[in-house]
Amino acid sequence: MASTKQKRGIVLTEEQQRIRRTRSIALALVLAGFAILFYLVTIVKLGPGVLNRPL
Q: Where are the domains of the chain?
């Protein structure tokens, strides 16, 4: 049957959790920067007229 002992897996220290959180935030910022960069490059390549679309 089910054992009463729970498996905890890998337990990180406070410092390891802080480093992981910092790395995740840095990665999120880099990805957001790439998304903005691709958006701006697309607008520049298509020209400013792309923003004046008829309704």
A: 15-45
